[in-house]
Amino acid sequence: MTRWFEDITIGEPFPLGSHTFTEEEIVRFAEQYDPQYFHLRNAGAEHSHFGGVIASGWHTVVVGHRKMVDALAAEEERLRGLGQEPGESGPGAGVNRMDFLSPVRPGDTVTYTLVVSAKRPSNSLPGWGILTNQLSAVNQRGEPVYYAELIGFSRLRDFKMPLRLRILGALTKIPGLGKLLARSR
Amino acid sequence: MNPITADRRHFEDLALGEVVALGKVTVTKEMIISFAREFDPFPFHLDEEAAKRSLLGGLASSGWQTAGLTLRLLTDAFLNKIASAGGLGFSDLKWKRPVMKNDTITGTGRIIELRRSRHHPQWGVLTIELDMRNQRNEPVMTMKLTNLIETRTQDVVVEEQPEHPYDVETGHRP
Q1: A102 contacts on B by Cβ (under 8 Å)
Q2: Which residues contact A67 (CB under 8 A, 6 or more apart)?
Q3: A5-159 maps to which CATH number?
Q4: pLDDT tens digits, residue range B88-131?
Q5: Nearest by CB to A99, which of B89, B122, B172?
Q6: Is the CB of A92 less than 8 angstroms away from the CB of B95?
Q7: Which one of A30, B73, B103, B121 counts the least CB within 10 Å of its CB?
Q8: Which homologous superfamily is B11-26+63-150 in?
Q9: B5: number of CA atoms within 13 Å, CB side?
Q10: Looking at CA atoms only, how far is residue A60 from chain B in angstroms?
């Protein structure tokens, strides 16, 4: 989240907005990443138990990710507007689970919500914190589309590099020694 | 009978431990930026200078793009050759190392679980563990993907067993 690690509130729902899936974009995503017959046009989707074209679950997930990136950018703007320096989010580390709960059909509108359910400072990346992000997606009838638990990074505001790490960092810059130290870790 | 999947391998034709070799794909700068513009517009996926300053250390694909390309390789090598009835989700996805510009990724899938659905005799559930590597054979991503597959025979008694936590047809939790 584009807030400093220290400012992230556990359990606070963060609305990410909605997206309406058109058949055109469902098919375009599937042609590139998931060309199974129930995601394509004129490929026999009507013979599947879905009875027609549905979005790839992965498509609904990456759109949810896009909504999150946009919401974080908006939050960054909001903080700047208040005269505050926003925090920094890092790349995702992984996904504990992602359950696809009901299919998304052309014309469906999916609403996404993020809740940070846990946070702790990272041991392997000094200066960064690890977040457990719960993402949920529901359609226009209130039916769950997916539920996910993801691991993300957020930068710590109140972080001072320990002396031990600062010395190690300086030593790795000495030619020849850096590789040796990296290998011994 | 589903005419699309009739000639494909069904649940009964798969074996636990079966290994699927995936094809490979080279991730270009254009692919990285085009995916990032649409789905993951963080500066470190869009701009080489911003990427160098980030945790990634250079222009790298979105983890979701790595996952999407993996899904494509799995669809071509496996999911379009079996009577797939849709994905149920995935778990334990780990982005182990960034996929940098011009890296080539490939990998294997291994079937680690096969079971019949208790409430839906027309389906089985398969879990495939994916291990993706770059051209230096370094791991870039691992995950477990769970998929429904059509069965041929449906008069099989299924023992009591844990079920997926929702009804696949209605999307409702019990």
Answers
A1: 170-171
A2: A16, A17, A19, A112
A3: 3.10.129.10
A4: 999 999 999 999 999 999 999 999 999 999 889 999 999 999 99
A5: B89
A6: yes
A7: B121
A8: Hotdog Thioesterase (3.10.129.10)
A9: 27
A10: 11
